[in-house]
Specification:
mainly alpha, 1 helix, about 100 residues, single chain
Length: about 100
């Protein structure tokens, strides 16, 4: 074979190898991208779950405090009502 034909055949094989390598690299890149997207979705989901749990904890604490304050207000209102219904000078109830 002539060197020109051999050179042409090597060039064709090199182009084919380059094309195959390029396809493999693109497939790997797509795979990496899918993995990264999966990781990010998972991370976001965990962050949302954590924030939701923290929110629920704060909400529960707030509701408990609010309930305690409402109970104290009701108790104090009852004491005031009793004091107002007693004759003046005979009040024995203290705050």
């Amino acid at each position: 074979m002539s060197s020109k034909v051999e050179h042409e055949q090597r060039a064709i094989r090199a182009e084919e190898t380059l094309r195959k390598t390029s396809h493999k690299m693109l497939a790997q890149q797509r795979g990496f991208r899918r993995n990264l997207e999966g990781f990010l979705c998972s991370w976001r989901l965990q962050a949302i779950k954590k924030a939701s749990a923290e929110h629920q904890s704060v909400k529960t604490s707030y509701e408990d405090s609010l309930s305690q304050l409402a109970s104290q207000v009701k108790s104090m209102a009852n004491q005031i009502e009793k004091m107002q219904s007693e004759p003046k000078g005979s009040s024995k109830t203290k705050f």
